[in-house]
Amino acid sequence: MTMKFTKNIAVALIAIAGVAGAASASSKADKEPIKQVWSFEGVTGKYDQAAVQRGWQVYQQVCSACHSLKYFKFRNLAGMGYEDDMIKAFAKEYEVAGEPDDAGDETVRAALPQDTFPAPFPNENAARASNGGALPPDLSLIVKARHDGANYVYSLLTGYSDAPAGRDIAEGKSYNGYFKGGQIGMASPLSEGIIDYEGGMPATQEQMARDVVQFLMYVAEPKLEDRKHMGFSVMLFLLAMTIIFYLSMKKIWKPVKEGKNFYED
Amino acid sequence: MAEWETIKPENKALGWFEERLPILSLVHNVVGPGTPTPRNLNYWWNFGSLAGLMLVIQILSGVVLAMHYTPDTAVAFDSVERIVRDVNYGWLLRPMHANGASFFFIAVYIHILRGLYYGSYKAPREVLWMLGLVIFLLMMATAFMGYVLPWGQMSYWGATVITNLFSAIPFVGEDIRTLLWGGFSVDNPTLKRFFSLHFLLPFVIFGVVILHIWAKKVSDSGNPLGIEVKSGADQIPFHPYYTIKDAFGMGVFFLIFAYFIFFAPDALGHPDNYIPANSMVTPDSIVPEWYFLPFYAILRSITFDIGIPGTDITFISAKLLGVIAMFASILLLFALPWLDTSKVRSARFRPTYRWFFWFLVADLVLLTIVGGRKPEGIYPLLGLLGTAYYFAHFLVIMPILGFKEKTLPLPESIANPVVKAAE
Amino acid sequence: MSTKEQTIHGEDGATRRDMLHTTAAVTAGVGGILALWPFVDQMNPAADTLALATVEVDLSSIGEGEAIIVKWQGKPIFIRHRTATEIAEARAVTMDQLIDKETDEERIHAGHEQWLIMIGICTHLGCVPLGTKDGDEKGEYGGWFCPCHGSHYDTAGRIRKGPAPRNLDLPDYAFVSDTRIKIG
Q: In Å, how far is C42's CA from the nearest CA of chain B?
């Protein structure tokens, strides 16, 4: 009886857990994202540092023209394997707003490691005006803000094609089967060889898309490796503790199981 | 209620203190060696202490997160991102709190279902049961307001949808909604009051938990057989027997909890809540957290007005009826001790009720699934059927079953669980 | 019943039984204490705060005899490009003239005698002394003057007159190059 009870509860819990995922899969796109294998997935997942660095290059040279990265600070480059002086040098190439001068006029200064990566547009209206009315979203959390985010971003970046017959695409828009509604304001951004990789890796569309996903995942969750690393130790500790508790429980309960009485009458 | 034993510590300072505030005696008599407890509690009895533990974890992690969170629409989302990115161990504390809510509900739901299966709500434990329901209602309010705080798209639209429910109340609905909002839509005043109440309510829950445990002390724990304790042989001291069993259960529960925190922190969340709130764009579908889905399904399943057929006269609009149904689905549980007319507590000896119990569990799973889907195709019909069964289960089946059901013979005692008739 | 109990004790052996339960209790205790650490450590300065813990300052634009104030960890830092006269004045002072006995050499980095870099908070009650900006009153010793209770500091930032008990404090700093320092 207890077995049956347990089994039923287990089935119910699995069903409930499944719903959360199923519930969010309802957005309307023509195609489901292509499944890719990512190094940061799984219990021991880690970022592929070389890929993250290449992705940073792709972001700087391509994406940053339209997309901001408002939660990304130059100092976060440290987690991607860059040394302090390299980070300073990266930052110095960008200008950010400084404090007003003595006359009260606005000033600019070279960016410092603590500064946010500068946004391409001063505000939403400027961004829309430059992009045919469409707003390029901030990319800091894009991988987490989409269902199956890593695969989604990869599929979107590599998924441009001609529109299916009978589908009208508005002027200035492109067809992308992975995008909700199919019409996307962004033209295919990653054409082969658009950048020269520093290490000499051939810049194919797939390669650039994979690299930029690694980078964007890092931006979305810089602490992912800490999380998984600590999780492993915590689970091991909890497992050991639970086993000790179990043995202790068995020993303590032995007299009860043997029918010992504790109270008179 | 077992006899109250007074502890007299040998240590002089402790003794002095104990005389003035008998806190050791309290522990001794409520969860200590001086607490006679049925010897046959199974693992389903672990979930009460687990729920209590989750409350403590939620309060601890919540207080700590509140040190960094800013309840202002302009920066609420940013402040949460700052917690996760820059605050020491923020990446751990935030998922602990977010997933902690889910695991609190898991513990409480199993605790409630255990009560339903073994008839824990029946005399003399009606007040114990009702206090539990008060805790459940307070938890729902707390969880709802907590989900608004990160100020993502789901936060904002969830708050909008739920607060709009109040506008269904006749005559004063619109005014109540405005009062809740503190404006003309969910906005800064709403966020600030939700934060304030989200901070306050857990301590109210804590207070009701103390009453809940007190009521348990007075009426004593039930047990899987559902029969009264007849002699000392039926009982064992709470400590160390149930403390170690609770500790083991905690270990298992924490293993699963830790898996979610460390390896699937976003699995129970919704990706849309990583998009900052935008009052101009509604997400594709507004889905509450999983633990609200059955009630959300009940709310949405009512799509018809009640009035005089063939005329335009409406007594109760569909919207109001949905709201009433949703609240009634929980409130009717307060009447359960009297709706259940059976003389036997435990479903172990109620073969027919057992079937209906599992049917109810399946119904709740169905409602959970329906609540998470868009109301299209077969889902509205499934939702309506699920809702109908839910109410029929408590309002029709439970009362009738008590009279009609042929229950199995009860065992002689807990210590001697042999069926009398079989001798 | 008494026989039953004896059997139990005989089988388990008191010490082994205690060991297991002690291990269980200790494990739980250690786990609990370890788990508390994140709840404590979150109160320490966060990464964004720490990122502002050091400041680099370019000295090349500060002419001889000029001074600036920069903000470091929420505190004002005085940076003065001292003239040869000011240095000479500071070095001419003998120990018996001082309240808080420190030589000028102890208060600057060797090889960078012209740069006096101090935390600009009066050691009396925490006001910010005058003397950095043009036209500020510099006190009787040509350094800084705290208007709150009348403390006078000399050109090495040492307390010479007034209620302040100590010389102006020095921050940790290093010369990254001849014209660039890193404070903190």
A: 5
Residue A109 in any domain: the answer is no
Q: What is the pLDDT of residues C104-161, one digit of tens each?
A: 888 989 888 889 999 999 999 989 999 888 788 888 888 899 999 989 999 999 999 9
Residues of B in contact with A43 (CB under 8 A): 263
pLDDT at C97: 86
Q: Which residues of chain B have pLDDT under 70?
A: 1-2, 418-423
pLDDT tens digits along A18-67? 444 444 444 478 899 999 999 999 999 999 999 999 999 999 999 999 99
CATH value at residue A193: 1.10.760.10
Q: A20 CB near a chain B CB, below 8 Å?
A: yes
Question: Catalytic residue among C81, C109, C124, C149, which?
Answer: C149
Query: Total domain count for chain C?
Result: 2
Please say whether the beta carbons of B106 and B256 come within 8 A.
Answer: no
Angle between helix axes B351-372 and B90-118 (nearest 10 degrees) is 150
Q: Do C1 and A247 touch (CB under 8 A)?
A: no
**Same structural domain for residues C113 and C178?**
yes
Is residue C54 located within the same domain as residue C117?
A: yes
Count of structural domains, chain A: 2
- The number of C-beta contacts closer than 8 angstroms across A and B is 151
- As a whole-number percent, the residues of chain C with pLDDT over 90 amount to 45
Contact A8 B358 (CB under 8 A): yes
Preceding amide of B124 cis, omega within 30: yes
User: Residue B205 carries which DSSP code?
Assistant: H
The secondary element (H helix, E strand) that includes residue C71 is: strand C67-72
Cα(C48)–Cα(C39) distance, rounded to whole angstroms? 18
Range of the domain at A237: 223-265
Instruction: Give ∠ CA C104-C154-C124 in degrees, rounded to 5.
Output: 105
Question: Is C2 touching B (CB cutoff 8 A)?
Answer: no
pLDDT tens for A181-229 read: 899 999 999 998 899 998 889 999 999 999 999 999 999 999 999 999 9
pTM: predicted TM-score of the whole model, two decimal places: 0.90
Contacts of A240 in chain C (CB under 8 A): 27
Asked if residue A241 and residue A158 are part of one domain, the reply reads no
Do A229 and A207 sit in the same domain of this protein?
no
C28 and C99 share one domain: no
Residues C117 and C165 in one domain: yes
Q: Can you give the pLDDT at residue A7?
A: 55
* Same-domain check for residues A178 and A135: yes
User: Chains contacting C with at least 3 CB pairs below 8 Å?
Assistant: A, B
The answer to whether the bond into B240 is cis (omega within 30° of 0) is yes
Q: Cα separation of A198 and A204, whole Å?
A: 14
Whether C149 sits among the annotated catalytic residues: the reply is yes
Same domain, C62 and C117: yes
| A8 in a structural domain | no
* B68/C43 touch (CB, cutoff 8 Å), yes or no: no
Chain A interface mutation, best of B39, B235, B268, B408, highest count of A Cβ atoms under 10 Å: B39
Determine the residue of chain B that is closest to C32 in CA distance: B57
Indicate whether C25 and C79 sit together in one domain.
no
pLDDT for residue C7: 37
Residues A179 and A213 in one domain: yes
Domain boundaries, position C76: 50-183
Nearest to B112 by CA among B313, B353, B360: B360
* Neighboring chains of A (3 or more beta-carbon pairs < 8 A): B, C
Interface of C with B in 98-117 (CB under 8 A): none
Other residues' Cβ atoms within 10 Å of the Cβ of residue B193: 15
Q: What pLDDT was estimated at residue A54?
A: 96
d(CA C80, CA A40): 51
